[in-house]
């Protein structure tokens, strides 16, 4: 199982470099299934791995001019609020056992994974449906007061999801940038990586405890593999068409979400 975990960690980094998202979509299940960590521990550790990998990718895209700093900040500030609310209020309020009915036990871990999968399916549907829509680099005139409010709300939602399920939010950020602000897929990827890095590392610093220091050697190894995969993904992204990237992203997210849903139902 460890070998599969290391291989899929490289694939996680490839996903981040290729489509600017998918890191947590893969990392949470990798830690949960292959490294046998519980849902809470996996979501926290995922934030570190994805945050570091996305940070390297964001720095590369910044050099290429693929990051819109203004939009990134508009997303990041409400995202931080959402992360704080989720980690300090929502998760602590939930009991470990939510429902016990005959032989069926609904746990906090189950709820986290189901919420994760449902959010992924909604995002994949948007990208598949609108993959043929044209996009162009956003301009200052696009950032009207209505769009600023919409971006802020999206940022808050992404932050809540980041805090609740340990996802960086790229699977929600990419559709928002492409569909709302008409970003090209390359600009959306660069900006998404910057937001993911900020959200993930912020969420990790809020959740890391001294009991998790034993995970550090494993996390550093996974980070190294993820960064290697991210460079590979960057090379692939330059060779693929924009429409193919959008559609591929949508189907990729849907496939992972379907697997998680089926697995959690069979575990009941």
UniProtKB/TrEMBL annotation:
Q: Which domain of life is it from?
A: Bacteria
Query: Where is it located?
Result: Cell membrane; Membrane
Annotated TM spans? 6-35, 42-61, 67-86, 98-127, 147-180, 187-206, 218-236, 248-266
Q: How does it sit in the membrane?
A: Multi-pass membrane protein
InterPro entries in the record: TM_pro_TauE-like (IPR002781), TSUP/Inactive_protease-like (IPR051598)
GO CC field: plasma membrane
Which family does the record assign?
Answer: Belongs to the 4-toluene sulfonate uptake permease (TSUP) (TC 2.A.102) family.
Name it: Probable membrane transporter protein
Species of origin reads Leptospira yasudae
